[in-house]
Amino acid sequence: MEKLMIAGGRPLRGTVQISGAKNSAIALLPAAILAESEVTLDNLPQLSDVAVYTHILEELGAKVNWSNNQIRIDPSEIKSIPMPNGPVKKLRASYYMMGALLGRFGEAVIGLPGGCNFEPRPIDQHIKGFEALGATVTNEHGAIHLHAKRLRGARIYLDVSSVGATINIMLAAARAEGATVIENAAKEPEIIDVATLLNAMGASIKGAGTETIRIEGVKEMHGCRHSIIPDRIQAGTYMIAAAATRGDVLIDNVIPKHLEALTAKLIEMGVQVEELDESIRVIGADSYGHVDVKALVYPGFPTDLQSPMTSLLTQCTGVSVLSDFVYSNRFKHVPELVRMGAKIRVEGRSAVIEGGPLNAAKVSASDLRAGAALVIAGLTVSEGVTEVTGVEYIDRGYDHLVTNLRALGADVWRQTE
Ligand SMILES: CC(=O)N[C@H]1[C@@H](OP(=O)(O)OP(=O)(O)OC[C@H]2O[C@@H](n3ccc(=O)[nH]c3=O)[C@H](O)[C@@H]2O)O[C@H](CO)[C@@H](O)[C@@H]1O
Ligand SMILES: C=C(OP(=O)(O)O)C(=O)O
């Protein structure tokens, strides 16, 4: 078993380069299935989720050539091989195989997804979308079976503006007959990134990034080259870590606009934040005022930064309230932070956090962002060594985390028992 060991108490200082976005990459990889020729993705993050996805594509018959931050996918030999089990169970975004295979072949069998299960994460809106396009969808022993003689465009109103459902419907509809309109679509930057790739592959998608997306189905799609957008959640995690350790960090290769909700909150609590063209500098202060935070869909404060933010709020004076309006029970990090001395209680969909010092402890990450929260908490503790297990979750979403933190002056290392 691997652990992260953190001897904290050192302010982070220096520059960190942010990799491409996980939540884009793991949608762009299956999107390549819709092309008839090679797709090249640049700025690919080096993450376990990406490794699992490339393995899935290879199992389907794609020729994959991954070298550092670039991947070339030749999907010309891909077949819709049933995948009720195996690697699809290892990550959440395997649900995109449903839309991509359905869109290209009119059929797919994909096991229900795995990934971070901090609470039940239904996919009813994805299925509603596939059915509206003309597919029959059944759940047989935990695997979703999809079949359509032909897919026809439809008007689909999403009950919740789901990132996954919006992207999955775009994938299925890109090569359908006629026009599809997604209403109440999610507006996250990763959706624009997927639409940009699909359009470069020959699709006709308008309105990505707004609540109405219109897709005119095309007969064929082809290869192209695309550079993945920077990972706003990794960037936000380093911003929070810089503030929590009272450091001074330049977070480079970011789109500052994607981080406005976090930037505004940091400034409100007394952190100095400077936005540059493609980077953000975060300069910590000796003390911070308490703030209330509401995690919402984009452009609101991201739920994926809610857990890391909890750790920062333990460093504020007074009581902060952090509520999650996307995932009401995403609080598995709280008991672990309490183990480290945090004064936090969960009330409904909110965590009530009373500021105060933390101490080193042995804690366990139950999901990716809970892991990030525990690492940040450990970085604030000046005596003793915090041990974080569940490193496999952290590796799903943080490219070279230990190397990056060490380069910023943190005393962090991996230890295998
Ligand atoms: C791979 C990926 O991109 N993961 C992100 C994606 O997850 P994911 O796409 O799974 O999250 P969604 O945007 O779909 O979920 C948003 C909300 O809608 C609900 N819902 C969703 C789909 C559905 O069919 N029915 C339904 O009720 C969910 O329970 C949740 O309360 O967006 C989340 C919200 O920003 C992020 O936390 C995840 O990091
Ligand atoms: C919840 C997350 O990812 P996934 O949806 O892939 O589990 C995340 O990135 O915080």
From TrEMBL:
Record keywords: Cell cycle, Cell division, Cell shape, Cell wall biogenesis/degradation, Cytoplasm, Peptidoglycan synthesis, Pyruvate, Transferase
A single Gene Ontology CC term: cytoplasm
Enzyme class name: transferase
Residues that bear 2-(S-cysteinyl)pyruvic acid O-phosphothioketal: 116
Chief location: cytoplasm
Keyword presence, Cytoplasm: yes
Residues at which UDP-N-acetyl-alpha-D-glucosamine binds: 92, 121-125, 304, 326
E.C. no: 2.5.1.7
Pathway: Cell wall biogenesis; peptidoglycan biosynthesis
GO BP annotation list: cell division; cell wall organization; peptidoglycan biosynthetic process; regulation of cell shape; UDP-N-acetylgalactosamine biosynthetic process
Pfam families per UniProt: EPSP_synthase
CDD domains (UniProt xref): UdpNAET
GO molecular function, one term: UDP-N-acetylglucosamine 1-carboxyvinyltransferase activity
Domain Enolpyruvate transferase as annotated: residue spans: 7-404
Locations listed in the record: Cytoplasm
Catalyzed reactions per annotation: phosphoenolpyruvate + UDP-N-acetyl-alpha-D-glucosamine = UDP-N-acetyl-3-O-(1-carboxyvinyl)-alpha-D-glucosamine + phosphate
Superkingdom assignment: Bacteria
Sequence positions that bind phosphoenolpyruvate: 22-23
Record: active site: 116 (proton donor)
Family: Belongs to the EPSP synthase family. MurA subfamily.
Function: Cell wall formation. Adds enolpyruvyl to UDP-N-acetylglucosamine.
The protein's name: UDP-N-acetylglucosamine 1-carboxyvinyltransferase
Encoding gene, per UniProt annotation: murA
